[in-house]
Amino acid sequence: MSTPVTNEEAIAATKLWVERAVIGLNLCPFAKGVQVKDQIRYVVSAAQTPEELLADVLHEFEVLAESSPEAIDTTLLIHPHVLSDFLDYNDFLAVVDAALEDVDLAGELQVASMHPQYQFADTELDDITNYTNRSPYPTLHILREDSIDKAVAAFPEAEQIFEKNIETMRKLGHEGWNALGLAEVQRDKSTK
């Protein structure tokens, strides 16, 4: 029987992943600025069901929409106890998008997806390119559209980020990924 992950463990693992992978590999050139300014809100959901998670998502939409970007620019909603299967998680993203519409925040906020089993369409499960979106725990990244627009305007060739990430991951390979020490985080959490 595995011991549930604590909130502190989930946040620590996610912060390590943000530092070493997202920022360290420059997978998101916009992440460093908000991290340095301490504008990333890390929240762990205790949800055990998709319905409970949706309630947490709606709450985080409200928190982000009502906060100033200087205080909270983006939120990582980590949910280690629900939607551990990637296909179930992927299906839930449609529910999240519909919820954004329902609360009239579409166009103001958007949600990006990260998951330990993330898999792009038409790739094999172990394809290294999937690791661009492989977080230690299932995570919903809630972003402000204004912040994305400003970041894209300030970053030349933003449309090439995805292709650069694929190239980075292919050069890095599984051995390079493992050298980041993130695989140990994955193994540690699976043995608890």
TrEMBL record:
A Pfam family of this chain: DUF1415
InterPro entries: DUF1415
Protein name in UniProt: DUF1415 domain-containing protein
